[in-house]
Design goal:
The complex is a heterodimer of chains A (347) and B (450). Chain A has 347 residues and is an alpha/beta fold. Chain A has two domains: 231 residues, Periplasmic binding protein-like II (D-Maltodextrin-Binding Protein, domain 2, 3-Layer(aba) Sandwich); 96 residues, D-Maltodextrin-Binding Protein, domain 2 (3-Layer(aba) Sandwich), CATH 3.40.190. The longest helix of chain A is centred in the C-terminal third of the chain and has 19 residues. The N terminus of chain A is likely disordered. Chain B has 18 helices and no strands. The chains are: A alpha/beta (347), B mainly alpha (450).
Chain lengths: 347, 450
Amino acid sequence: MKFLYAKALGIAALALMPLAANAASTLEQVKQRGSVNCQVGRPEAGTFMLSNDGVWYGRDVAVCRAVAAAVLGDASKVQFQIVAGGARFTSLANGESDLMVRAATNTLKRETQLGLDFTTVNFYDGQGFMVPKSSGIKSALELDGATVCMDPGTTGVANVADYASRNKITIKPLMFQDRQVRLATYLKGGCDAITTDRSGLASDRASFPVPEDHEILPETISKEPLGAFVRQGDSQWRNIVTWVVHAMVTAEEIGLTSKNIDEMKAHPQSTDQSRFMGLEGDLNVGLGLSPEWAYNIIKHVGNYGEVYELYMGKGPEGGPKGMDIPRAGSLNASYRDGGLIFAPPFN
Amino acid sequence: MADVVTKSSDPVFTPMPSRPAPVGQRGVIHWFKTRLFYSPASTIFTLVTLYLLYSIAAPFYDWAVTNAVWEASTRRECFDKNMNGACWAGVIHWFDSYLYGRFPVSERWRANLGGILLILWALPIWLPRVSNKATVLTTMVVVYPFLAVFLFLGGDWPLVPRAFAMLGVSFLIVNWCSAILSMTTARNLAQHLGGWFGLADKHPSTLLYPMVALHAVLTALAVVVSYSFTLPYVETGSWGGLFLTFVIAISSSLFAFPIGILLALGRRSDMPVVRISCTTFIEVVRSMPLVTLLFMVIVLLPLFMPAGTQFNKLMQALIGLSLFTAVYLAEVVRSGMQAIPEGQYEAASALGFGYWRATYLVIMPQALKTMTPVLVTHFIGNLKDTTLVSIIGMYDLLGMLNVSGQNPEWNGLYQEPLLFGTVLFFVLCYFMSLYGRHLEKRGSGVSGGI
């Protein structure tokens, strides 16, 4: 949903694509450079956060680190590129960034018209509404005539318009680019509700003096599959980024965690585990990575469930607090538990 | 002419001490009467203003002081302690990050050392009877930056740049020796050395030789010592906070100054090509908002470069800011030069001075003096403009203030950091403008002993 796009720049980026069709593949460039250039967005609780001693961490950061671990064997070899909204596509298209992980929704237009390729989903979100409990509103359908504060320039604005027209209600949008101003306006009663991705709403709610006074309405009005984008035209690199995320999901399915993986490597419990860790088979060949690539991801970053718990869940024990958004029952649960998190077979 | 002799016994006119004003015309009550309550209308106005002030200040005081929470480990804890107060605990928690950004914790002493060295370097300028002020100032602009970058960036430096950096150490030592000698003995180090080597009665320029030799020896020593340790490399991407704000403000001002002077000279040049290109450049950049210029440098520049070219964002921001400041400085310098009477130019050429010598020795020293107040204003503006780099993804002070509330622990913390930033900027800018006013009063320009 967070995808403020300047069309002119997108077109400029497209026009310059031939220039960017460089001789060396992204993988070779990354190996030569010794670090992954990972484009991220503005800091945001859960996805991209700064610790007090200057280290980036969060859900999107974990994807960058996992790619670095798979390709270079070292999760710390990431250059985080904080690129302004208007320059995001240019920066990816002209080769400055190797991948872009900034809570960006995959849409038809983005994948086909901006010179980008979507890899795979690392988080399913959906847009929701939050209202003060005192308003007595229990469903988004009751928002007829309401003023709703939102972030301009994201897919969220169109989602609200779609939802309103579908249900024959009118919703008056009030745009604020700055999160704090948006929240302050809402708290002061400047708008009847606020809307953004549900994970964002949870974070907004947690920042209020009395979170209990506010309620996130049950309706989810949009699909927001979030994940990493890469430059169009390098299918090897696209495969690498895609399968790095798949590896994290697969590790969870076959019971490998950052804590037990060394033990399992010494005594694999099953053939799919040994295949995953590169002890047998040749899964790495097509990607152009070392046989230990998947092992390195789990060892240095963790499997999908672990990463979720660290940043979107409760947070590490004794470490920084997480977002505390329950995974069970959500779309981000494993497919075995009724969620959508699913990886193609590691064969 | 007859001497006028005054005998001590002669009566001398001494005026009576003036009597104090009548009771009704002085004192606190009078002050209040004549200034705040001199008519019914003014009385009402005063009362309304006082009420307005009170209605703003009282809740603010309650929020910022009475109800404030100073100790907590998360923002939620602040709320639990007092819902209606400022959460200063958050600002305290992030304080070091505000100062240094992502500069590695174990290397932050290098940023401090760089700042201390700069102050040490500049100190002789303010001391009395120091005769080498011009050298101190010039080397601060030309030599100190190498030493500073060596400290801040670290890593493995090849011999030649390393020697430049170590020349800084040499100059720092020599400048101070010279300053102390000239304060105590009224002769600076060059003159002392000249005396020892019997060069005192030779041409004054021979005094340079022993100094050059001294610098060579000291630099060589410093280079040898510098190879005995390696400072870990700290990429510019992790520079941040107030440190980055200072780095950008100071270096863009330093770069802008010579560019601005050259542009101003170019605009007043008799050569049409030089004049027209300088004027065009000044007018184009001056009619652009700084944000636009920064975006152009960050977004468009890479488009014209070969694919995959890596840009140093700090360098890009510095280029943008320096150009922006330079064109404004150019106009300031031009106005300063226009204030110099025509006679000065004519006198200089009558004395046989060429263009550059006349400019350097006659025009600029006078022009700089008249420009001082405006220059200070520009440097204050420059310091504040640096905050714009936070929108191009650099974490200067403002960027760091905004980041600290974007995590689950301090989620939503933003009023307190921004207020802290406001106070910090006010203090910095206010002291700069006070200093500017002091310069103005002394009537001395940059060249004549700040």
